[in-house]
Amino acid sequence: MMSEMSKEAHMEGDLILVADDSPTLVRIVSEVLEGGGYRVLTAGDGVETVQQFYAHRPDLLISDIAMPKLSGYLVCRLIKEDWSASHVPILMLTARDSATDRFWAAKSGAERYLTKDFGPDDLLAVVSELLRDRAPSNLSPVSAPQHLSEGSVLTRVCEMLDRKLFESTLVNEIGELGSNISDFAEAADAALGVLANFLEYTIGAVALCDERVLAVRPIGDVSRANVAGVVQQMDEAMRNLPNVVHADGDAAVVTFENVGRVVEEETDRLQTFVSMPLRAGGNVIGLLGLASTRANAFGEAELSTVRIIEHPLAGLVNTARLFERIAATAVN
C-alpha cells in the first residue's frame, strides 16, 4: 500500500501514523482521525511502518499486531528501544483480544490497546489522551528525518533481537546463581563475576544497607588506596539513598581476590565511579558500585544493560541475605 498524506485542511493537526495491512481498516481509521483534525500518514506492513516513522517522525503511532514483514510487536519494540523515538506513544489497534496479546503488547512498550470493534468516539478519546500525556518534547527533541531501506530496517531488528538475547542470557545467568548460593558475600562475588563478562571494570562492589556490609571484587592488581576510595564512595552513596535507614559505624568490608589482588604500591588512579540502588519488594536493600581507571568507562549501552539486570541481581542478593538471617536465628 502506498502511503498518503491527509488533506491540506488538517495540516495544522498532530501527525498520526496508521499501520495496518487492511486497506479498509486504514481508510476507516484515517477518516475518523482526519474528521478529528489530525493529519494522517499510512503504512501497509511492518517494514513500511518503520520507514514512515523515521522519515516523518509522527506524534502518535496506531499499529495492528499481525502485519506482513514485521509484526506490530517488533515495530513497537524497535521504536521503544530508540531513545530518540521512545517518547512517541503507541496504540495497538487489533482484532485480537486475548490476555496474551494484551500482555505482550504492554511488554513491547505500547501505551494503549484497542480492539477493532471500536467506535469513532472511543478512538478519538484514546488518541486525545495519548497525545495529551506524551513525554514533553523538550525532553525528547525531534531528530532529523531518516530514509531507511528495507535492509536497514531488518538490520536494526536483528541488532535489537541480538541485544535482547544477550540481556536475557545475563538475567538467566544471575538467576541460576541463586540455586547454589546462600551467603551474601558469595552471591555478590558471583554476580560481579557475571558483570565482568560484559563490563571492563577495575573494582566492583555490592553493599547491603541495613547490615552495613560491603563485598569488593578487584580485577587485576589494585592499590589499597583505590579500594579505600571505592569503599568511601559506596558508603557516601548509601548514606545519600532516600527513604533508607542507615546503621551507624563503618561498613564491614569483604574483599575477594580470586581474579585480582590488593597491593600496597600505587596503581593507576580510578577515574570513573557509578552506582545503582538495588531494590527488592519495592524497597532499596543495597547498592551496586563499579569503578574503572578509564575515564567515562561505562557508556549508555553498558549502563542500560546493568539496569536490565538490577532486579535479578537484587533478588539474588536479598535471597542470600535472608538465608543468612535464617541461619543465624537457627544457631541462636
If you had to describe this structure to a student in words, what would you say it looks like?
It is a single chain. By secondary structure, the chain is α/β, with parallel strands linked by helices. It has two domains: 8-148, Response regulator (Rossmann fold, 3-Layer(aba) Sandwich), CATH 3.40.50.2300; 162-331, 2-Layer Sandwich (Beta-Lactamase), CATH 3.30.450.40. 43% of the residues lie in helices and 20% in strands. The chain has ten helices and twelve strands. The protein has helices spanning 23-35, 46-56, 72-80, 99-108, 120-133, 150-177, 184-195, 224-239, 300-308, 310-331; strands at 15-19, 39-43, 60-63, 90-94, 112-115, 203-208, 213-218, 220-223, 252-255, 260-263, 272-280, 283-292. It has a five-stranded parallel sheet with strand order 2-1-3-4-5, with helices on both faces. The protein has a five-stranded mixed sheet with strand order 9-7-6-12-11, with helices on both faces. A two-stranded parallel sheet has the order 8-10. Helix 6 (150-177) packs parallel to helix 10 (310-331). The longest helix has 28 residues, at 150-177. Residues 1-11 have low confidence and may be disordered.
